[in-house]
Design a protein that fits this description.
By secondary structure, this protein is α+β, with helices and mostly antiparallel strands. It folds into three domains: 81 residues, no CATH class; 34 residues, no CATH class; 72 residues, no CATH class. It contains six helices and seven strands; from the N terminus they run H-H-H-E-E-H-E-E-E-H-H-E-E. The strands form three sheets. A three-stranded antiparallel β-sheet has the order 3-4-5, with no helix packed on it. It has a two-stranded antiparallel ribbon with strand order 1-2. A two-stranded antiparallel sheet has the order 6-7. 9% of the residues are buried. This is FAD-dependent oxidoreductase 2 FAD-binding domain-containing protein. It holds the Pfam family FAD_binding_2.
Length: 197
């Protein structure tokens, strides 16, 4: 079988009905081998095997699955200590609530589950909040029949990143697209939300 970058890019673009961020997908695929190596180094090895999902039984043999789920969870829980050891700060149970922006990004304003307010100086921020399927108002705005949908997405995905990007003037208009697995609203962000400077 000959399955490389071009086949993966074409296959994923077609599978997602061309609602993809081409630049981001290209970068992801170009780094996929190195990322798999990094996962192994972090104690999260994967093996290529046939997908268990009926819709993908005839797909090329490129599906990566964690070798041992229980071991994966143990090693996953060790990652914050590795990040801290490398000189990074790890905050759990903490969410971004606003961005301080004046002549460029100055800081992320965050709040802990206990209500403590934090100001985290930053020149760049990645808004990776998972969409907005946890915000009934945003869902209703894009999907007239949203109350009839079986929403299997994360309720904590409340659209915070989209709202913060819009507050700074980013174009957050989009054509709604459902993920066939999670049934959550997604849209092409054109990297505007992924790196605000």
């Amino acid at each position: 079988m000959n399955y490389g970058y071009q086949e993966a890019f074409t296959g994923l673009t077609d599978y997602n009905h061309f609602f993809v961020n081409g630049e981001l997908l290209a970068r992801f695929l170009q780094e996929s081998g190195a990322n798999i190596d990094r996962l192994t180094e972090m104690g999260l090895p994967v093996t290529v095997e046939q997908s268990e999902q009926k819709a993908h039984l005839d797909d090329p043999l490129v599906y990566h699955k964690f070798n041992n789920f229980a071991e994966k969870m143990v090693n996953w829980d060790k990652l914050p200590a590795k990040f801290t050891a490398a000189g990074n700060q790890v905050l759990t149970n903490t969410a971004a609530v606003d961005l301080e922006y004046q002549d460029g990004l100055q800081a992320v304003l965050a709040q802990t589950d206990e209500g403590e307010q934090l100001r985290i100086a930053a020149k760049k921020v990645i808004l990776a909040d998972g969409g907005y399927c946890g915000d009934p108002e945003m869902m209703a705005e894009k999907y007239a029949d949203s109350a009839e949908l079986l929403n299997l997405g994360e309720r904590k995905a409340d659209g915070t990143g989209i709202k913060l990007a819009a507050k700074l003037g980013a174009n957050t208009n989009h054509t709604p697209v459902f993920g066939l697995v999670c049934l959550g609203g997604h849209f092409q962000k054109n990297l505007v939300e992924n790196a605000i400077e």
